[in-house]
Design goal:
Layout: H1 3-13, E1 20-22, E2 28-30, H2 35-43, H3 47-50, H4 57-65, E3 68-70, E4 75-78, H5 83-95, E5 102-106, H6 117-127
Parallel strand pairs: 4-5
Antiparallel strand pairs: 1-2, 1-3, 3-4
Amino acid sequence: MTIADYIAIKKEQNTTMCAAVLYPDGEIEECITSHLKTLIERLGEDAWDQIPKDESPLFWLTGLTGAVLIDYENQVYSEALSDEQDVCLKKMYASGILTEHPCVIHFGNEPLGIVKAEQLEDSQRKEE
């Protein structure tokens, strides 16, 4: 759903219970059961097979998808927000349905074993 639709629903409900997943393209999906189940439903059950055994499934999938995990008090994400996510979060803060408290859980996704192309290029330039 769009951010405008989500804000309208939450304003109408007059609640601070707003568990959701915000994807890099700005689409937002309300979490009916949990953030983890919402991500797995979107990716498919075979996503479980991709998650390293020694990693937090929720945090690993957050890094993989680039999603922001939202609840009233915290907005958890990996690396950096997309422009669309930044705009959506600012709209939610302005509407009063969230408190502003973004939390980065990974930087560069190195703990996940995910190396982005631009990081690889930077490290190669430093070696030269």
